[in-house]
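[step 3/7] fold_predict: job queued, chain A
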Amino acid sequence: MVKFILALSLIFSLNAQAKAKKILVILSENKSLPLQDGKSYQTGNYLNEFAIPLMALIDAGFEPVYLTPTGKLPALDKDSVTSKYFNKDEKIFNRALKIFNAIGNSQPLLSLTKVQGFEPEEIGAIFIPGGHAPVIDLAVDPNLGKLLRWAHENKIVTALICHGPIAILSALKDPKPMLKFLAEGKISEAKEFAKDWPYKDYAMTIFSSIEEKMAEKGKLNGMMLYYPSDALILAGGKNISAESWSSHVVVDRELITGQNPNSVNEFSEKLIAAIKAKIAI
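[step 4/7] structure written:
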């Protein structure tokens, strides 16, 4: 049986009855998004994109395992810490905050840099939420890239929402120069590094360039170095965008992607359905 090497020492002493019950939740440690003209924006993981799918998974009987690139606490985007993203339901909002704040405290937090073997059958899915933070660290993390290539080879459900799908660029051999050239507008040079991507020709979605331009004016107060949707297209993805801020989820083989924060409910439903269908095989 093919194994992947990762830091999951005591977590994965599973018995046969716990098949595919673990959800690897990959979170960004990044707190600052560089913008053009030397500007930056304080960012992090988006609370509702993290918590709504996760609460649905927990309620369905799955167990989260939290990982960040180096084992540091995940960052939280302060703009997402509001009950308006939870239909102003304070009870659900408070539950979401409690779950996030428990990471690294009452809930273990692991690092992608350490190693331990586990079997594909132990993992129900890999889940990566959004917020602008993944654009900086997860998109280029080599250990995450190794994990995603392993997940792709073993057809493990891989679900990412909003800016989260940028993380699948880490599965390139070396995404850093591609993104550097893209930010500089050197498209032909960038294409030289957009090769041998496991997700080439997959249908997918991500926070759209139109939505990003709206965010630049209304939230970021600056311009992105590059648009994540352009990066996925350059790497070979078939990016499909829907009307701005509408719920939109794309499923292609093991890959599930959601466009924006308003896609969380549809995204959660399709994620759980995909995991259960995989377990039933």
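[step 5/7] annotate
The chain has one domain: 4-168+206-226+241-280.
The CA atoms of residues 145 and 171 lie 4 Å apart.
exit 0
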